[in-house]
Amino acid sequence: MADETGRTDDRTRLSEHEPAVEAMLSRLVTRHGFGGRPTSTLAHIDMVGRFLAGAEDAATAAAGQTSAICPWGPLVGRIGAVAVRAVSPATADHHREGLLALLEMWSRSPMADPAVRLRRGRVAATATASRDEHGAAVTIGGADAERIARENPELVFLDRAFGQADPPALGAVVDVAEAPLRWGDADQLTRLVALVRAKGPVPWDRGAVDLLAERTGTSRTTAAVALCGFPGHPNSNGSELTAQARKTLKVTLRDLQDAWFRDMEGHTDEDRLELLAEILPQDPERLWEPGGLSEVALRLSQAWRQRFGEKRVAPLSTVQAAEKAAPNVTGAQLCEWLADPGAVPLLTKDLDTWLESADSPRYKSQKCVPAAETLQLQNLIEAVLLGLRWSYEELPVGDPVREGAPAAYDLLLQRLANPGLLLPACLFDVRAQGPDAITSRFGTVPHSGPSELTVDYVDDGLTVASLVARQRLANLFFRPALYGVDGRTERLAEVVDASRNSRHAFERVRLLRGKGAQAMAHRIRSGALPEGAYEADPSASAPSLVEEAVGRLDVPPDSAALYLQLLALDEPTDRNVRKWNRWTPARLRKAADPLVARNLVIRSEQAREGRKIFLPGPWTQGPPPQEMWKADLKTAADAEDPHSPFTWRSLPDRFTYAWHHAQERTDAHRTP
């Protein structure tokens, strides 16, 4: 009588929280949610537990089946995933109470008994429940008796063996596997529920987030989301995380979208449940003790590596610094690609692309296909290019991301040499010239490809250009393998440079094939700098130039190095200079004093753009705002060598050019 009273209390408590619990379960075990009655899933879990325990007969279990059930079967053996959500401070209170009630119910079922042998699988069902002397088997929803008789559908099932023999089958078994309890026996669940009700959710620990991010090479947002049980899937529009929860975790909705689409791209529900299944401590009380969440982070990082393999993990400081290096990837993704480029499929295997019609009711147009892979490759081209320059300029010698960047660059050049690769170049405004503007530049040889197109194209080998009468814009595509071979490249470049949109891929390929990117990759490989040094420190990367500046300016070496940085670099903030030169604030002030005394620089205590030391003269509006000197410097450098933009030259070259340009201007001012 007492057991039945307790079960009735469970049902009453669950009925109060059924919508919230069902929503949480749907996001744990399926990306797309489900339809049906709000009570169906929880009632079904309760019924299955009683059937496996022998408290319900097969007929009653079969009668309780319905298609409107969340596919909760993957939680068997992995109830720890629900427990992680229940203790998380990111879980809303009304959701937490529902999950705690569910855990209480689960703790009274055979699914919380490690001695019970359970299996999970799929079956072409001819029945939904069965029991004999060897065991019991039951389907996890998906069909009622009428559908079973009509279709024999393939359903998820759960069975329990009473001994060594197999339980009864519900039809032809498609696959089956043991589902041992990983964490969450009756005692652990009972204690955990009591602790949460007494103490509230587990205290949040940003140190645990940093630990997990560093051990797995993911972003801090991904690490935070993982420690909370992976809430915030894009299909939920972030609604699982309240504004207060996001404040606690220090993440934004944009951060969540990036984490899901970049760091967790390709991870399945099965992956996430496996990661969470046994990361909680055997003694639940440890969660509320100092370092408790860090222990969870360590176990989660081990599960992550076992699930996804060992990776070259970048330092957390590098991952954080990379967040803004490339616009379309997270810092963690960029660092992973650069540190271990051999593990990136699009860098190790050629991608063939071609044109396919993509007509709308109003316009006829074509696109490169396969579309998803083409877009991924374009993002990869941008990321490797920008990542090469960023890692060269901003990371110290010995950082795994910097050291791996030249290999990523080389692999990307190999992929761009594939003659079967076609990429978008630009939209060309032909204005009144019409098709003649195309044929006069790219010839009249028709384009042929594997797909029949609704628009005529000409093809000069490098450029594929559309011929559309009475349409102002023409689509241009190009083959990177033929870039730079002959005069066709200049003809295409003139059109691209005159266009205002769709220039992404061509400009990136132009820079990748340029002298600047080659020089940066060479400098990283050269080993010219000692371990821990930065290329942005001219004392390390251009020591002879520093000596020349010392003699010319009559200042100490530190002052000469600082002056070269102020002349040539875009963001010589106080923090950056101290990092690059490995100086203390006092050493920076001491280096600036002789420059100020000679009127070579000015000092302002009102910090502007993160620094107090500037070149004299007017400023540009930006972004970012800079001394006008630098704008003039870049204009002069680019005019002298248009194919090597100043910001894409190696840093020793930039220091040298800036120094000589400054001396020429000084000499010119002295000449009567």
Mean pLDDT: 88
CA(first)-CA(last) distance: 110 Å
Bin the strand percentage: 5-15%
Q: In what order do the strands lie side by side in the largest sheet?
A: 2-3-4-1-5
Number of helices: 29
| Number of separate strands | 13
Helix and strand content put the structural class at alpha+beta
Q: Which value, in Å, is the CA radius of gyration? A: 32 Å
* Major pleated sheet: 5 strands, antiparallel
Overall form = globular
Regions with little confidence, pLDDT below 50 for 5+ residues: 31-39
Helical fraction: 40-55%
Compile the SSE list and pairings.
Layout: H1 2-29, H2 40-53, H3 58-63, H4 80-87, H5 93-107, E1 117-125, E2 129-132, E3 135-139, H6 145-151, E4 154-161, E5 171-178, H7 186-199, H8 206-216, H9 220-227, H10 243-249, H11 253-263, H12 269-276, H13 292-308, H14 316-321, H15 331-339, H16 345-348, E6 354-357, E7 366-369, H17 371-394, H18 400-416, E8 423-429, H19 436-442, E9 456-459, E10 463-467, E11 473-478, H20 488-498, H21 504-512, H22 515-526, H23 538-541, H24 543-553, H25 557-568, H26 574-581, H27 585-597, E12 602-608, E13 611-614, H28 628-640, H29 651-670
Antiparallel strand pairs: 1-4, 1-5, 2-3, 3-4, 6-7, 8-11, 9-10, 10-11, 12-13
Quick description:
The chain contains 29 helices and 13 strands. With 672 residues, the protein is α+β, with helices and mostly antiparallel strands.
How does this structure look, described?
By secondary structure, this protein is α+β, with helices and mostly antiparallel strands. Helix content is 50%, strand content 11%. The protein has 29 helices and 13 strands. The strands form four sheets. It has a five-stranded antiparallel sheet with strand order 2-3-4-1-5. α1 (2-29) packs across α5 and α17 (371-394) crosses α21 (504-512). The chain is globular and about 100 Å long. The chain starts with a helix and ends with a helix.
